[in-house]
Amino acid sequence: MGFPIERRAEHGVGTHHKRHALLLNGKSQPSRPLGHGYPSAFQCFRTASIAEDAVADAVRSAKFNGYAPTVGILPARRAIAESLSQELPYKLSADNVYLTLGCAQAIEVILAVLARPNANILLSRPGYPYYAARAAYSHLEFRHFDLLPEKGWEVDLDRVEALADENTVAMVIVNPGNPCGNVFTYQHLKKIVDCIKGFQNISSDPATFIQFHKSLREPPRIFFSKIVEILKEAADICYDTIMEIPCMTCPSKPEGSMFVMVKLNVSLLEGIDDDVDFCVKLAKEESVIVLPGVTVGLKNWLRITFAIEPSLLKQGLGRIKAFYQRRAKKIQ
Q1: What global pTM score does this model have?
Q2: Domains in the chain, ordered, with CATH?
């Protein structure tokens, strides 16, 4: 089942963010957060005014200020069903929609439903650690299959076949990928389904976590087009700069989400033991935060977030390059 739960807590994402925050306390140089997945903190990613107005109007209406059903209020579920139905060959109803407070609660609800004696769940490595923590809490055994960096982070299907059995109740597929930034092709997704359909009751329904933070009846297409362009620019900046740093290798340019996984060659660095040591000293010396790969299951890798202002991203990556140049081992 991987790390014991106390070890997983020790290596958790939040633990490293708190440690880095303490290291940055009192620093004169402004920090550059390339480890947090919080784009809304930056002006260029601020949500569209139509969404802000919709929330304000809902509060002022006094129609939704009391307790809501656990599945979400009916008007919201109906609006989501209508929006999703536009791109489907069949029509969804409000009863097909279950609203949660973000993906964390969705994970909690689903794993609580799936939990039963002797059941197991298949999780990707690297992957979001909350799945494993919540599975352990629900007394679900979790088994890790690898994502293959040399194949664009595709699923290791041979490993999945070896892990799955009659007690496998779910396989988690995150697409677009966090933390890898990959997007699976239709052909690869079909191979995944073919691989596990003998073990699981595969549903063709669009059972997925979808984050809605906009007016569903009037989606601001211009807003989302702008966000996509900013993320594309940031992904290019991130990939191109990383390729200029000898101690780092990026298997592929990110295609989706706002993250990229980078392999760290500590043998080229002086006084750096591993990915955690790299991140701690980078935060201390350069006020730049990146996430050590061990927190998502890959030792001596880094997860870099590029969903910040492009100008700040360039500064942060420039400091990482300077850190390498200062720490690079001298060739004898």
Answers
A1: 0.83
A2: 5-46+221-327 (3.90.1150.10), 49-196 (3.40.640.10)
